[in-house]
Predict the structure.
Amino acid sequence: MALSDRQSHIRNFSIIAHIDHGKSTLADRLLEATQTVSKRDMEEQILDNMDLEKERGITIKARAVRLQYHAPDGEDYVLNLIDTPGHVDFNYEVSRSLEACEGALLVVDATQGIEAQTLANAYLAVDSGLEILPVINKIDLPSADIDGTRREIEDVIGIPAMDCPAVSAKVGLNIPDVLAAVVRDIPAPEGDENAPLKALIFDSYYDSYLGVVVYIRVVDGVVRAGDRIRLMSNGREFDVVDVGVMDAFGLSKCGELRAGEVGYITASIKSVGDTRVGDTVTLADNTTAEPLPGFKAVQPMVYAGIYPADGSRYGDLRDALEKLQLNDAALSFEPETSIALGFGYRCGFLGLLHMEIIEERLEREFNLDLITTAPSVIYEITKRDGEMVRIDNPTNYPDPAEIETAAEPIVRASIITPTDYVGGLMDLCQDRRGEFLDMKYLDTNRVELHYRLPLNEIIYDFFDALKSRSRGYASLDYELEGYSDSKLVKLDFLLNGEQVDALSFIVHEEKAYGRARKIAERLKDNIPRQLFEVPIQAAIGSKIIARETVKAMRKDVLAKCYGGDITRKKKLLEKQKEGKKKMRQLGSVQVSPEAFMAVLKLEDDD
Amino acid sequence: MQKLGLYLHIPFCVRKCHYCDFYSAPSGKGARAAYVRALCRHLAVAAGEVQDFSVDTVYFGGGTPTLLTGAELHELLDAVRTHYAMEPDAEITVECNPVTAAEGLMKELRTAGFNRLSIGLQSVHDSELQLLGRPHDYAAFLETYKAARRAGFANVSVDLMFGIPGQTVQSFSHTVDTLLALSPEHISAYGLRIEEGTPFYRMQPTLTLPDEDAEAEMAELVAQRLTAAGYEHYEISNYARPGKRSRHNMRYWLGADYLGFGPGAHSYLHGTRFETAPDRGAYLAAVEQGAFTTLRQNASVIAGKEKMDEYVMLRMRLFEGLDLQDFTSRFGITFREEYGDVTPLIKGGFLTCTNGRLAFTEGGMRVSNAILSEWLDFGK
């Protein structure tokens, strides 16, 4: 079917890259070069709106922007740039964003070459049937190896790269080449605008005035303001209030979106939970026969208890989580109570980065001090009576006598590293119960390692260890493979003979002793001395496997009293009393919030 | 007649010691003379308010009182005697730093009527004195101490400090023994506390302070040695030969009245605590203008729960502790009703309760803050 003239002047593409390879900076330059944003209005990394994104140099939420491109041949094109998150935690979102495109720019840093996420994202793009257009970036740097990078792209990914654009997004070199290549090499969108509406949701966010703003790519048909739409995964129907496109400064109404176009709709939707990424939008009275393939509701992989450091702010924590959830359907939470920490929430996250981001946003945007328990994965426990339970909180771990088998999630990890560090990283994977799969030389200097690893070994401190053992050069990507039976035990900690539920975690039998010793030591260093000696014990069931002692306090006294200044003494005692209020009273022992946190941050110190 | 203590603050120092956050500054001769005139005037005016009191302790503290001349100190003491009813056996203390050529000064002080001398030694090791920023060495102390004895001071107190950067249990032990050989009547042994705003506070990251265990050992050591040598450990940091407790400092712990003079001085009179702003210029100006009421700052009437908590905080600094019957009759409630059951603390060896008195043990005293901060509530 011949494309309409309108469709033949549309290009939908995304930019994929490893972290720090310059994706957001390139996006900025494209906005400038098409005069979507004037240089004067340009602020660094305009697509990364959140402070957190700018600071960390990562994209957390997908975003889209429409560029008007006046090509040198005199034709005018609409280029829809869909910016995708660049982290393994958000792989599903990335895959849906890619589905909304016909092509992808694969940005590769000319000084670093291909990294784990470059590959992972490139494969995702290939799987989505996208035309991949390599762009070599950072050619202004003295250590840039343009030809080497071209060869590497051809060898490792197997796509032609000899003529691909080589640019410096930072200094704005050769940016027009990229635009020309987008128009030349990326196919225009197909799709029949006379067919029933079929549109893909690739992102959504909550706006307090508009309700949920849904980002869509129209595959077939047309959507207009006033249409009654249906979301095919849940059957919910809404009346479209507005339809429009995203320019660099926000939403711009346009009345309708046709096949091949990218834009937004609003329909007085109250919760992003209704507008799941990957779902298909159609019309209520003219429904498409088949939804778009590949929808799945994303499931959290990592769980942790989050508690307010100040117990009286429990309500504030709930409000904050509710607000964040409006924009983040992947965040789940439900109330839980801990004897040690009081009232809090068990929260589910896509991964560790997602967890860190949520914690940071809670602390930063809602001004909360938090205590977070050790992250846990979901274990599948089959009991002797045949019942299967999924455990996301160590407190609920069944009595060992009731357990028939215990299974833990396993991931397939890909690590790309300079060859110098291979030995150390293989030791690390070995140490984390990794099963070696294969190793492949990318070139003479770099290797890609594949391992099967238990997810609970990765969520712990694996990434930091990986970075420290490779001086920051190694990169990691992983995907969930499935569950595998494992010898798991629940490790408990007792202070002064009383179990502290918030410190319990589930660990592989072989690791239990080492971890128990380390954490007992940490507790000893972080629990303030008290009037009485505090024994610390680590236990599996009733068996004590490690012990330490917090010695009794020996000195805590106000000595001098200058010239009868009694007021100062009172203030000092008051300050001390205030400090104690922040402590958690666990039986007879006072524990500071810092002690809980310190226990979670074990370094790779072997 | 009610008894009163007077405190005269002399806010001058050759230089600030690294740990000191008390109000003082270097000065010229003229400034010192002007300050003495202002103090005399203040003493004269304030006397009207305490006519129904007789003064039984006078304390010249600092700063460094002995930066004033013997004649100036004499003049100040004369002003006290002129305007206040004095008890014949009043304890009259002057603090001094070790100085060279002390002979003449000591004689002048005795002649003026001072009968108790408190010398800031801190350590017998010159390296430790240097670290503290003290403006003297051990030899200067010895000279001063001997000159004081020759001049007839029969009641001498010496200050020691432990927890000094670089100090070891061994070096402190040597300091204690060396001082004991001189047999002063009174010894104060303070643990160093790093206060905000002092040079030590800024230097803190670079200081190697003895750890909690070493500091506790030093505190234990000094208590053992001094009590073995016949001193009474009568207050957290203070030791005295029988009958030689600091009567002036006891006022603080017993909740008795005292009136302070000079910038940064504290007072407790008629149940009200107040202080003079720590600003010598402002002090001189206020006295000059006769604006004596503006000198009193942060006045606070101590009553009710605060008075009760203060009573406990101060009495419990004394090894004789507090009289439970006295507590009940003062506050109309028993100690146990107010602060809960202390049996676990007695069993734990932190408190004793004998003859109706509740008191800290030696070990309990060293961790008394942890216990007091549980009991008391000075939050407003």
